[in-house]
Amino acid sequence: MLIFPAIDIRNGKCVRLFKGDFAQETVFSDRPEEMAAKWEAQGGRFLHLVDLDGALTGKSMNLEVVERIAAAVDIPVELGGGIRTMENIDTVLALGVQRVILGSVAVQNPELVREACAKYGERIVVGIDARDGIVAVDGWGISGEIGAVELAKKMAAAGVKTIIYTDIARDGTLSGVNVEATAELARESGINVVASGGVKSLEDIKALLPYEKDGIEGVIVGKAIYTGSLDLKEAVALTEEA
Q1: How far apart are CA 93 and CA 125, in angstroms?
Q2: Is 30 one of the annotated active-site residues of the chain?
Q3: Nearest CA to 153 among 183, 185, 119?
Q4: DSSP per residue, 37-48
Q5: pLDDT given at position 155
Q6: How far apart are CA 67 and CA 65, in angstroms?
Q7: What is the pLDDT of residues 110-158, one digit of tens each?
Q8: Could you tell me the residue range of the domain that residue 102 belongs to?
């Protein structure tokens, strides 16, 4: 199982939000590329980047920072947040980003997802962010009026090979990952799922490991590694032993 250290970017800085609330922000670094290098040094094998400004505006806003991060590490990075056109996808992947994460556009323009998968294959990932099982879009502020499982099935049919599933109610709360909902999404859709939201400690990683057989291929860790409630080295070691 892959551990994805998360770097959320807002106004060029590395931040964390509480339940996706932009009014509840904590800044952890003015130089996100240094944070990226730190997580790589501690054993991270794939970085998860989110352009929070992009999520709000509907287009990438921190690409200079993303490019610096990609250049600062030897491990692959993925980027999500406001990527909603093929031109934007082309630009991001040309910067050295390994995978692009499509979120709101999966609800609003599923044909673009199909087109992107046809062009880039497994480099296209869909992020499904849900509150009480219902997908949220546009920076999590609006209901997408579709269930997470239903959307996952549609994305599988469009050619998507990996989904990142975030339980918004748990994101940034350190309240524990929603194992059951994540495993259900993987089983029902038949494609790989990365768990996200609420990870607090090694116990959360341990709770996910038995569900690798269901298709949970990884987990994103954010606030926990910034506050120290989870040691990234220990988490990586645990998954490599399993």
Answers
A1: 12
A2: no
A3: 185
A4: HHHHHTT--SEE
A5: 96
A6: 5
A7: 999 999 999 999 999 999 989 888 898 866 566 668 999 999 999 999 9
A8: 2-241
Q: Is the pLDDT of residue 5 over 90?
A: yes
User: What is the number of other CB atoms lying within 10 angstroms of the CB of residue 240?
Assistant: 11
Closest C-alpha among 235, 236, 240, 181 to residue 211: 181
Which tens digits make up the pLDDT trace of 65-115?
999 999 999 999 999 999 999 999 999 999 999 999 999 899 999 999 999
Q: For residue 198, give the 3-state DSSP assignment.
A: coil
- At 225, which CATH number? 3.20.20.70
Output Rg (C-alpha) for the chain, integer angstroms: 16
Q: Where are the alpha helices (DSSP H) in the chain?
A: 32-41, 52-57, 63-72, 86-94, 104-108, 110-120, 148-158, 179-189, 202-208, 223-227, 232-241
Strands 162-167, 124-131: pairing kind: parallel
* Closest among 231, 220, 178, 222 to 196, alpha carbons compared: 220
The answer to whether the pTM exceeds 0.85 is: yes
* Alpha-carbon distance values, 192 to 23, 90, 152, 216, 219 (Å): 32, 24, 10, 6, 11
**Which DSSP category does 70 fall into?**
H
Among the listed residues 53, 129, 171, 204, the single catalytic one is 129
129 carries an active-site annotation: yes
pLDDT at 141: 61
Question: How many domains is the chain partitioned into structurally?
Answer: 1
